[in-house]
Design brief:
Shape of chain A: globular
Structural class of chain B: mainly beta
Distance between the termini of chain B: 41 Å
Strand content of chain A: over 45%
Order of helices and strands of chain A: EEEEEEEEEEE
Radius of gyration of chain A: 13 Å
Oligomer: heterodimer
Radius of gyration of chain B: 14 Å
């Protein structure tokens, strides 16, 4: 099993450009998440999908959109990139064990720089 | 809203010494707590989690954490540090999501350095 995979690994954009970050998991998990990691701030939740067909905003959703394409795939789109979106983006998934004790499994991350 | 605070953004220990990474939580209900580790240029990996079954939780790589309700703490310890433990460590608290899954709120992380 590959676990959680993310593409691309690195990306440089100019302000105003758009791009989509791809995430896929092969663990038959129901819930998927997008986080961003910035120095000194830990990880912050951007969007999540509790189950196929549903998406919802997390702590920092402004400037982003998501699509839960199917059970395996969850993409994050930046419509008009801004320098403030320079960050490392992580996708994660969890099984849906219930009760708040689900372990989330993380991908390797995408390093995005917006000039 | 639930939150966690990690005291000390950088901790340095000698190889073989005790590792103690601090995490305090704020929650109005019994929390579910996690410790994750991040090695350089990698994603996060679960070390251990508290699910209320036992207050002393053992994880991978010799780490353990004790849930202390009276101190609202969930500190991570390892009796003897190894060079391979050098990494960033994150404490997180979980909120259940209606319809499935859970939202994690992370602390700001503690960078552990292990010196010879």
């Amino acid at each position: 099993n590959a676990g959680v995979t993310q593409t691309p690994k690195f990306q440089v954009l100019k302000t105003g450009q758009s791009m989509t970050l791809q995430c896929a998991q092969d663990m038959n998990h129901n819930s998927m998440y997008w986080y961003r990691q910035d120095p000194g701030m830990g990880l912050r939740l951007i969007y999540y999908s509790a189950s196929e067909g549903t998406t919802d905003k997390g702590e920092v959703p402004n400037g982003y959109n998501v699509s839960r394409l199917n059970k395996r795939e969850f993409s994050l789109r930046l419509e008009s990139a801004a320098p403030s979106q320079t960050s490392v983006y992580f996708c994660a998934s969890s099984l849906l064990a219930g009760g708040g004790t689900d372990t989330q499994y993380f991908g390797p991350g995408t390093r995005l720089t917006v000039l | 809203a639930q939150s966690v605070t990690q005291l000390g953004s950088h901790v340095s220990v000698s190889e073989g010494a005790l590792v103690l990474l601090r995490c305090n939580y704020s929650s109005s209900v019994p929390p579910y707590l996690f410790w994750y580790v991040q090695y350089p240029n990698q994603g996060l990996q679960l070390l251990l989690k508290y699910t209320s079954a036992a207050t002393l939780v053992k994880g991978i790589n010799g780490f353990e954490a004790e849930f202390k309700k009276s101190e609202t703490s969930f500190h991570l310890t390892k009796p003897s540090a190894h060079m391979s433990d050098a990494a960033e460590y994150f404490c997180a608290v979980s909120d259940l999501i209606t319809g499935g899954g859970n939202k994690l709120t992370f602390g700001t992380g503690t960078q552990l350095k292990v010196e010879l």
